[in-house]
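Page 42, continued from yesterday. The earlier attempt failed because a stray header line got pasted into the input along with the sequence. Redoing it now with the clean sequence only.
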Amino acid sequence: MLDKKIVNNLDYVLLFGVFLLTGIGIMLIGSATHANVDSPNRYYYVFRQALFAFVNICIGYYLLHFDYRMLKDLAKPMYVLNIIMLLAVMFFGRTVLGAQRWIQLGPFSIQPSEFAKAIMIIALAAYVDKRVNTLDNLRGWIPVFAYVFVPFILVMKQPDLGTSLVFLAILLGIMIICGFKKKYFLAMGFGVLAAAPLLWGVLHEYQRNRIRVFLDPGLEPYGSGYHVIQSMIAIGSGLLTGKGLFAGTQSQLNFLPENHTDFIFAVAGEEFGFIGVTIILLLYLLIIYRGFSIAMNATDNFGCLLATGIVAMFTFHVLVNVGMTSGIMPVTGVPLPFMSYGVSSLTTNMLMITLLLNIDLHPQRLRFH
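This time it went through. Structure tokens are written below.
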């Protein structure tokens, strides 16, 4: 039964952007996969994505009946559960394409690192909220950095550089909203540059190749550079208006790898053209803007921190995914929110939108002091 109070106060502008992007994603997944799958299951990915989108919408509406501030008391157990899940991947995880990131549960394959993003937003927001009065100097931030460092390292071990960088983006967003001083940012920036040679040594060889290919895509045109080259060809061939849905040759003829997951934006560029991808990017901008507005009008510091972490996560995902498919950023395997195929990713994103809506249902403003 519908709750009129909830229905009347939902942010329908935010929902419009989310539902439209999800619908576009389902269409593009169908276009990207229908020609490459045996006929009895040619729309397997479409039905699966649509089914879980519907299930997540139902779950999300149910969760709106609970006050998001309940999560503050659950943050510590969730953080511990997160560490346990990431450790379980190390010992029992399934390896796909050289990365050990999935756990098989019967017919379902889940990716704990995707759920780890949501858990880290909640756990970090609660942790910072308790320490907000001690964050006026760099020393006060050291426990916060350590709090993020543990799951960061566990995800790096999978290896999953993209998701581990999402953790840093979430932390960065929360640092900015808490008034982290510019001089500290500059000092940390110089520190990272100084440590660059050491960081290069930590990376796996395929990760180094991705950076080399980013600097020169023609370095390995049939190896590490193949994804990027085919993606840029697909986007460029869409021109102004695109070739039309189900008419993208790079995708239909299977030249474009991972076309229904990480490189779904390239399919959009080929089939919808410049005008189509501009509309898609404007929809993402709408979601980010509404999320930032919710953060600024949150009931309390915890709600503000939650919304900021969510906005930081979405912003990072969009910038990195669009950047890597366009050839202006290294390939990191970061999916495009609501559009890339993936049950774990879609569920995480839908739950974060639900959390934004929940925060928005409590409109009283309270700034940091």
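Notes: The beta strands are 94-96, 99-105, 108-110.
Reminder to self: strip header lines before submitting.
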